[in-house]
């Protein structure tokens, strides 16, 4: 389960970076903001998993 969540976090971060870059290239501030938000969501998920891992060791 933890591996799935870590993979999901990485996917969200990558998708967010791509969306942010596309939004910036097209001058679409809304898409750029959504991309940043998606990255933050991925970062939060990754941090949560790191805390869980630290608790297991």
Helix-strand sequence: HH
Distance between the termini: 17 Å
Bin the helical content.
over 70%
The coarse overall form would be elongated
Number of strands: 0
Class by alpha and beta content: mainly alpha
Q: How large is the radius of gyration?
A: 13 Å
Mean pLDDT: 93
* Unreliable runs: none
Sketch the major β-sheet: none
* β-sheet strand percentage: under 5%
Task: Kindly describe this structure.
Helix content is 93%, strand content 0%. The chain is mostly helical and 57 residues long. Helix 1 runs antiparallel to helix 2. The longest helix has 28 residues, at 29-56. The mean pLDDT is 93.
Structure at a glance:
The protein is mainly α and 57 residues long. The chain has helices spanning 2-26, 29-56.
Keywords:
57 residues, 2 helices
Write the layout of secondary structure elements.
Blueprint lengths: L1 H25 L2 H28 L1
Helix pairs in contact: 1-2
């Amino acid at each position: 389960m933890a591996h799935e969540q870590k993979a999901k976090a990485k996917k969200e971060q990558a998708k967010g970076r791509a969306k942010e870059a596309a939004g910036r290239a097209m001058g679409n501030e809304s898409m750029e903001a959504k991309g940043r938000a998606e990255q933050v969501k991925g970062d939060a998920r990754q941090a949560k998993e790191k805390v869980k891992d630290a608790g297991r060791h």
